[in-house]
Amino acid sequence: MIQVVHLNGLTFRALAAGDLDTANKVSPVPVSEYLAGPESRGVWQRRSRQFEEDPATAAWVTGVIWDSEERAAVGRAGFHGPPDSAGMVEIGYAVDPDRRRRGYARAALEFLLRRAVAEQAVRVVRVTIAPDNEASYRLASQYGFVEVGEQWDEEDGVEVVYEVAASESAIFGART
Questions:
Q1: Residue ranges of domains in the chain, CATH in brackets
Q2: What is the rounded CA–CA span in Å between residue 65 and residue 129?
Q3: Alpha-carbon distance 64 to 78, whole Å?
Q4: Both ends of the chain: CA-CA distance in Å?
Q5: Which pLDDT belongs to residue 84?
Q6: Average pLDDT over residues 48-54
Q7: pLDDT tens column, 61-85
Q8: pLDDT at res. 123
Q9: Percent of the chain, pLDDT > 70?
Q10: Mean pLDDT of 85-104
Q11: Which of 60, 57, 51, 56 lies closest to 15 in space, CA to CA?
Q12: SS3 readout for the chain
């Protein structure tokens, strides 16, 4: 079974610093070298700042994709924050390169979509995808996400913005 495990402020800080030993002492689940590595560090630095400003964001933001059968952290996933004033949440996820092509991205996306559907305050779910990331596009399109524009991300460059209404029928009825 795959779930997204929320983290605490101490874990955010340790991962933001790339301190795997401390992160594993304070995290609710063991984390991996990938999660403490340079590819993930920027995400944890942002989440650590969010947590410092508002600890309640920990229930929304990036956590660990946890495979309970393997008892292993296989990536990171979550929302960029709680719903905004328009009821929009944005999903982000990344699977450890050594664990890709095993269904973890799909499982994490479905976990987060179910959470969004269950939250009354959420009306729209967004994902942003690099124009050349065909695998992520194919996955998102299976859940009813449609292109609504483009944006520039300081870290990732050009991203295509996709959205879907946060309802069971819009999301899970669209799956092909």
A1: 2-172 (3.40.630.30)
A2: 19
A3: 8
A4: 22
A5: 96
A6: 96
A7: 999 999 999 999 999 999 999 999 9
A8: 96
A9: 98
A10: 95
A11: 51
A12: CEEEECCCHHHHHHHHCCCHHHHHHHCCCCCCHHHHCHHHHHHHHHHHHHHHHCHHHHHCECEEEEECCCCEEEEEEEECCCCCCCCEEEEEEEECHHHCCCCHHHHHHHHHHHHHHHCCCCCEEEEEECCCCHHHHHHHHCCCCEEEEEEEECCCEEEEEEEEECCHHHHHCCCC
Supply the pTM of this predicted model: 0.92
Q: Give the residue among 90, 95, 82 at the shortest CA–CA distance from 40.
A: 95
Q: What is the pLDDT of residues 152-165, one digit of tens each?
A: 988 778 999 999 99
Measured in residues, the chain has a length of 176
Quote the CA–CA distance of 48 and 54 in Å, as a whole number: 10
Give the amino acid at 168: E
The mean pLDDT of the chain is 94
Q: Tokens for 153?
A: 């991300």
* Tokens coding 143: 């859940």
9-16 vs 38-53: helix crossing angle, rounded to 10: 140
Question: Is the model's pLDDT at 169 over the cut of 90?
Answer: no
